[in-house]
Amino acid sequence: MTLNKTLTISYYTFKEIWKSKILLNVFFVGIGLMIVTYVATEFTYGVPERVALDFGLGMLSLSSLAISLFLGVGLLSKEIESRTVYMVIARPVPRYSFILGKLIGLMGIQAVNVIILSLMTMTATKFLGGEINGLILWAIGFIFLESLMLLLVVVLLSLLANNILSVLFSLVLLLLGHVIKDTQEISFVKSNPLVVKILEAYHFVLPAFYKLNLKDFVIYKNELPLSYLAGNFTYAILYSGFLLLVVVFLFQRKNLD
Amino acid sequence: MIHFREITKIFRSELLGQPFTALSNVSFEVPEGSMVGFLGANGAGKTTSLKIIMDFIRPTSGNVEFSSALGSNRQEIFRNIGFLPERPYFYQNLTGHEFLSFMGKLTDLDTKTIEDRVRLWAPRFKIDHALPRELKTYSKGMLQRIGFLATILHEPKIIILDEPLSGLDPIGRKELKDVIVEVHKAGKTVFFSSHIVPDIEEICDRVIFLKNGNLAYDGSVSALMKQAKVQDFIMTVVAPGEIPSTIKLKERLDLPESLTRFTVTPENKDVLLNHLVTNKKSIVSLEMMKPSLEEIFYNTRGTHDPQ
Ligand SMILES: Nc1ncnc2c1ncn2[C@@H]1O[C@H](COP(=O)(O)OP(=O)(O)O)[C@@H](O)[C@H]1O
Ligand SMILES: [Mg+2]
User: Which among B85, B77, B2, B89 is positioned nearest to B48, based on CA atoms?
Assistant: First the structure.
């Protein structure tokens, strides 16, 4: 019963965003990608297929993060502002079901975006003589996970702060979550056990987005140890689960006015 | 059906700002089968009360009790409530039809039932032709009507409407009032808020009146009107000429096209009428003034001055 309603909410959330034609932008990004790839291959020496892949994955990652950030911040706050949420939760629908439905609906949009752009990227790469290996698929999957994690971060913050602050904080967390990796490599940090501990603790509290970034590896390598991939995959799932619990908890208690 | 019990709601604004008491110890009941008007000026606390009933926000103290006729758990109770928020604003990119299916499915209706009921009601609300269109193309009145349709689609036992008539033109108001009356006659309990006295007077048998977050009146509509003590008459006359000063006028307003509008108290109404008739003046209209919310506001006893 409740699962059905969650999926109903997802379906109409997907439909509502889909019909807002936001994905049209994605399509234009895709076209732009083709053009830039073409131009780049004309002007770079050496490895045009790498340019295509690099650029394609970059665009894919940017657009999914942007969708998470900008559609995610309004996912609940816009519903509350425009009172559409009242139409839904005035019915026999538990609040957690509402929020799950919204999240799944938006992730559906996210999936369409990822599929379109990665097909375009892989086609361009293949066309230019590059090779599609398993690592590219992992990289794409990880981009999807990264956007899921960012979505949950921004939704969580939007339950606590206004939209502008939520987007800003999320961006800060996104950047921190990436630079923390390089920080760990600094020799001063390595020689200081306390700082090492603090950085380790960071992963448990704040999102370590760098774990989901395989772009650099993809360009220069063909494979990574499965344990590394599986470890980071597990991290992303567990951390997202944790964020989801917090989001549900906060929304359950929130005054919707 | 709904028992609002000793509810206080204090809004604590973020950071600075003082706490604001939107409702102080308000109690009332919406009896089964009744048509209850929820009257109050803007900011009186009507929407806040309805949000508390719907569990969108929580009261600072007090509680809301639903009678067993509505059900024994939250799911059952909410299946038997139809709620229409104030100035509802819908998913812009869904069509009217998609929106109604969405709302129907959330109240456990199957597709066939939804289709049947939409086919039954949509023409009644004059939105059948617009159902394939996206909601962003709807006028305000159409949105209000489709919102109302969504509210009764699952045949709830009680419908709760927040300012359902505001923003509608006179014809739209009349039409919606007619449907509300019809739905009530079909056995549904109706509870709706309004800041417009005549709307409530016209169709409600009972009124709950909020004044600055306090319960100012709870009882029959006619008794409230009597309390208001405003029953002046308005008379529009063609070229009445001078009126002898023995006839006390509350107000005289000369209008274009040699019309004049008099306001008189009930005691002076017949005297003025006699004078006009004996002088062969043509009377265009005569009506009893409906008290406005302000007049009721200042005249309801048992309450303190506003502010
Ligand atoms: N979230 C809130 N924070 C602070 N004050 C609020 C909040 N919501 C409503 N109020 C105040 O409570 C009072 C009652 O509001 P409301 O219930 O919307 O009135 P009504 O529906 O009768 O016009 C108003 O003065 C309003 O400003
Ligand atoms: Mg209101």
Answer: B85
Q: What is the pLDDT of residues B36-83, one digit of tens each?
A: 999 998 999 999 999 999 999 999 999 999 999 999 999 999 999 999
pLDDT bin (cut points 50, 70, 90) of residue B268 is: confident
Domain total in chain A: 1
B102 and chain A: CB distance < 8 Å anywhere?
yes
The amino acid at B50: L
Half-sphere exposure (Cβ direction) of A257: Cα atoms closer than 13 Å:
18
Q: Which atom of ligand 1 is nearest to the CA of B162?
A: 21
- What length does chain A have? 257
Strand order in the sheet with B61-66: B20-30, B2-11, B61-66
From the CB of residue B267, how many other CB atoms can be counted at a distance below 10 Å? 8
Ligand nearest to the CA of B42: 1
pLDDT tens per residue across span B214-236: 999 899 888 877 776 667 889 99
pLDDT of residue A101: 96
How close is the nearest chain B Cα to the Cα of A84, in Å? 6
CA dist B172 and B155 (Å) reads 22
* B306 confidence band (pLDDT: 50, 70, 90): very low
At A57, list the tokens: 């994955």
Measured CA to CA, the distance from residue B51 to residue B202 in angstroms comes to: 25
Cα dihedral A86, A92, A98, A104, rounded to 10, equals -140
Residue type, A157: L
At how many degrees (to 10) do helices B140-152 and B96-106 cross? 30
Nearest protein Cα to ligand 1, atom 3? B11
Q: Do B56 and A83 touch (CB under 8 A)?
A: no
Question: A185 CB under 6 A from ligand 1?
Answer: no
Instruction: Give chain B as a 3 state SS string.
Output: CEEEEEEEEEECCCCCCCCEEEEEEEEEEECCCCEEEEECCCCCCHHHHHHHHCCCCCCCEEEEEECCCCCCCHHHHHHCEEEECCCCCCCCCCEHHHHHHHHHHHCCCCHHHHHHHHHHHCCCCCCHHHCCCEHHHCCHHHHHHHHHHHHHCCCCCEEEEECCCCCCCHHHHHHHHHHHHHHHHCCCEEEEEECCHHHHHHHCCEEEEEECCEEEEEEEHHHHHHHHCCCCEEEEEECCCCCCCCCCCCEEEECCCCEEEEEECHHHHHHHHHHHHHCCCEEEEEEECCCCHHHHHHHCCCCCCCC
Question: B203-219: per-residue pLDDT in tens?
Answer: 998 999 999 999 998 99
Residue B34 tokens, joined: 């009744």
Least confident piece of the model among A9-13, A123-127, B300-304? B300-304
- Which structural domain, as residue segments, surrounds residue A175? 2-253
Per-residue pLDDT tens digits for A59-111: 889 889 999 998 999 998 888 888 889 999 999 999 999 999 999 999 999 99
Contact criterion met (CB below 8 Å) for B213 and B22: yes
Residues B159 and B81: their CA atoms lie apart, in Å, by 6
